[in-house]
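ribonuclease H structure dump, as promised
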Amino acid sequence: MEKLVQKDLNIIQDWTKKWRKKLSIEKTEYCIFSRNGPIKKMNLQLEDYWKNLGNSKSRSTDQKNVGKHIIMEKLSHLPANSCIAFTDGSCLGSPGPVGAGAVIFPSNNQPQIEISKAVSKKGSILLGELIAIKLVVDHFLISENRQNTDSITLFSDSQTSIGILTLNWKSENYIKVIREIKKNMKILKMNGIPLNFEWTPGHADIQGNDIADSLAKKRS
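structure tokens r here:
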């Protein structure tokens, strides 16, 4: 058993070293989410990072372990007063019934908050992902919900949603929802609460993502 565990640890360490060597996590995040806006040169590198961990349907066990390791590392380095949220959307068919789910871990060690919504009887997974993010943003628009919180770190497994909201990716659908999210993000920032996005691999045994996924599925 010890040999098997050590083998898995070696695989994770090897993947992590290669990934860090290729991109440098800290530099990529700073450039992409800097206050001066996205930097085009770094966008391609971020997409390479996403591709390195595959997708939920084709992700190998090794990629799954690496993804979980990376997210746990990111969580461990967040500031004490940073509120953490995981979001996910669900769609039964394309198009089909859509649900959205989110779980929030407050910065003041209060119990986790679970939010979910039945979004539409006929929509797409992107709509579910965007509404899930909106649930979190709208939650923090209420002043009492952001007490003792200096920032919000939101983990989404939707690369498209993050691209649309932070990297100026274009979308021909759900324009109203996208505009509302961006507007409310600005309101939070004006109130001293920046919202930082992180991509998390889905279906990789990451607790927050699994909870959000379950909530979304129940409402779709």
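The longest helix spans residues 2-23.
lmk if u need the other ones
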